[in-house]
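Entry:
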Amino acid sequence: MITELLLPLGLAFIMFAMGLALKPADFALVFTRPKAMALGLASQMVVLPVLALGVVGVFDLPTDFAVGLLILAACPGGITSNLLTHLAGGATALAVSLTAITSVAGALSVPLVVNFALMHVGGQGAPVDLPVAKMTLGVFAVATLPLMVAMAINGRWPALAARLEKGARHLATALFAFIVVGAFASQWRTMMEHAAAVLPPAVAVNATAMAAAWLLARLGRLNGRERLALVLETGLQNGALGIFVAATLLQSPAMMVPSIVYALVMNVTALLVIAWARLAGMKKGGVSPAFSQD
């Protein structure tokens, strides 16, 4: 009941609430800030899955947990990434655009990465019974379509979207917490038995991904606020989507454990980044020296 009905509906509402704050113009940043967008997309959609694959190899995780971690790494930015970027003093417009593009692209990118994980990490060795087309349809219907509908409402009736967005955002955040806590409770025994195996790789993926995003942004000579946006967008993933893919589409409760653990880890590290950016030697536009322009 929960995984077959409530989880998809909850995720759909989360994506709908996210879409109410987005509009087609958010995609224009691809043309006005192409370097920042390219680096952000590369960091989140290429570097993060590759790092997760490396971590899986280093930690020699059990198959279900390894695939689950790659599922999480394939997911787009989370519901709170834009808000936390704003609180940290990062480039909110860049964060919003990255969230919009990765969420729409997720209908294709998530199934492809997951299918790869099942074939090469899950030991299938051949195309799995779950076709990419079926998963693409599932992700599109539950994640991408609600986002696009909400964006269309915002584009056509912005005043209505603004009225709905505030309450919807709070409810979506509560739903996200409910999904994570509910999944945590349902997998309590597995979590306790395998915490030592799952927590270190989850932390490693999160920390190395955020560090890689910072390094990529620095090498690309992005300004401090853009660096901060890339770090948070790369580190904060849509854990609810990861849980949905594992529990509903793949029917594997064990595969959703890494998404649960990562959802807890990413919020802790994001708060540390925000504290660092706001408190540690603030200067040059309100960001710490590590995020300032050279």
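The first helix runs from residue 2 to 19.
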